[in-house]
Amino acid sequence: MNKWFLRGNSRRFYRIDMPVHAYIAPTSPIKDLEIYATGTDYFPPTTLNLIQKQLSETRYWLDKIQDQKELLEPLFNEIIACIEFLGKGTENISKGINPRNSPDYWLSIKQMKQGFKTVDALQKSAPKTYTYFKLIEDKYLSFLNAFANSIENSTPQKVAARVDIPHAFKIEE
């Protein structure tokens, strides 16, 4: 082997960092859209299996709770329902169905914007747990508000997304 090849970073072709952006669009877009959608399946079977696995693990560990079970079980069930609610809306949007056209779903969004109703019961008995769940609620509400804003302002030709969504939340510290 030649000496020039053995010295430090003596490459013939140097490596460079080059950002690459890929835009994926379906070959057959959805017809008669109510809201902008590309037809991307955000919930493939692998993701659904992972969600089901994590949900069953959550329910398993929820059954193991002994202290304050009467306070925590309704709270966890409410949080799970809220997450499934957002998932249902995301799935509808990915199919080109505008959730705003469903009066029940739109009223549910307005009710969900009030936050978790069962979290206040923890304030006196478990203040640290209450603070933790309030941080989870803040994160959920920021995503729900961005979701609702996107639904309100999107058209079949363009999607309106907020760019001021925080990238880091206090709960992630």
Walk me through this protein's architecture.
The chain is an all-alpha fold. It has one domain. It is extended, with a radius of gyration of 23 Å.
Number of domains: 1
Give me the Rg, rounded: 23 Å
Alpha plus pi helix count: 6
Mean pLDDT: 86
Could you give the order of the helices and strands? HHHHHH
The share of residues in extended strands comes to: under 5%
Rounded to the nearest angstrom, the distance between the terminal CA atoms is: 50 Å
Task: Tell me the major beta sheet.
Answer: none
Structural class: mainly alpha
Helix content: 40-55%
- Detail the poorly predicted runs: none
Count the strands?
0
Q: What sort of overall outline do the alpha carbons produce when their principal axes are compared?
A: extended
What are its keywords?
53% helix; mainly alpha; 173 residues; 0% strand
Give a summary of the structure in a few sentences:
This protein is mainly alpha-helical and 173 residues long. It has six helices and no strands.
Fold topology:
Blueprint: H1 3-6, H2 45-64, H3 69-94, H4 103-112, H5 122-125, H6 127-153
